[in-house]
Recover the amino acids of this structure.
């Protein structure tokens, strides 16, 4: 199993320039990771020269940029802005390809006031599927996440409630859109993450492992110390023959200790699942 990490706790330092992406790649290697995920918010230049340099820096540190995380807002009430978001996704696909990232995280958009559920779902489905051909041509897989809130967003994700997420997933079943399943986000609305996973299990191409303190409230904590049923989720994934990436989303703000604890916990839980026989064994 390949493990990567989305370093949410480092976002302020990466945004301010106190840390560089090269610093992050080196730290990821120290953590014993195979990959280091990157947010589009921390790409300072989209020039091919810069992106290829970042790809080399990651490789020199012994890690791969497994996923580029983006923040599409397809549910914006302004039609011109929704079209701009589609063009931005096309640019992000090209960026991911130049970084050597096989996966690109996509979102439905924000829960803008006044946007109806029906309209938001229609717009999200359109935005999430329009660029799938561009992604395939670039060798990039788009992964739609059961997401909470984007970096720099004002509102929570429009599709954070499980019924909306599952309806968008259902209406994109015909397409090549894949799922990025987060272990804790569904709990923020007190929905059942195992029921949501069961509904999309055959489409999961990447997993974000995160944790929150209690159901009904989005308060990230060190992975393994909250209420996310990570072990049960891993059981479901193993039973389904999952062999994709597991990305440790460290958002607890507890420093280097939090990263090390989170990575160790995720690896141990997955290894525990691997030691258990499957039903066919």
């Amino acid at each position: 199993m390949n493990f990567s990490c989305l370093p949410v706790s480092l976002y302020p330092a990466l945004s301010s320039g106190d840390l560089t992406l090269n610093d992050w790649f080196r730290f990821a290697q120290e953590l014993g990771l195979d990959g280091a995920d990157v947010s589009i918010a921390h790409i300072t230049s989209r020039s091919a020269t810069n992106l290829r340099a970042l790809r080399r820096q990651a490789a020199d540190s012994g890690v791969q940029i497994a996923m580029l995380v983006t923040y599409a807002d397809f549910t914006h009430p302004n039609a011109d802005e929704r079209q701009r978001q589609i063009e931005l996704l096309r640019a992000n696909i090209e960026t991911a390809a130049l970084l050597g990232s096989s996966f690109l995280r996509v979102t439905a958009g924000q829960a803008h006031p006044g946007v109806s559920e029906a309209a938001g779902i229609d717009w999200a489905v359109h935005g999430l599927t329009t660029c799938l051909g561009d992604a395939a041509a670039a060798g990039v897989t788009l992964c739609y996440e059961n997401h909470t809130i984007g970096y720099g967003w004002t509102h929570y994700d429009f599709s954070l409630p499980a019924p909306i997420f599952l309806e968008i997933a259902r209406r994109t079943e015909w397409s090549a859109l894949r799922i990025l399943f987060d272990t804790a986000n569904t709990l923020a609305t007190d929905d059942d993450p195992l029921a949501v996973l069961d509904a999309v299990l055959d489409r999961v191409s990447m997993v974000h492992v995160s944790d929150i303190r209690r159901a009904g409230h989005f308060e990230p904590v060190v992975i393994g110390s909250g209420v996310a049923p990570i072990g049960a989720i891993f059981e479901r994934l193993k039973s389904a023959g999952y062999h994709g990436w597991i990305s440790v989303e460290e958002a607890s703000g507890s420093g280097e200790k939090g990263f090390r604890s989170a990575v160790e916990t995720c690896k141990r839980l997955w290894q525990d699942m691997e030691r258990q026989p499957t039903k066919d064994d």
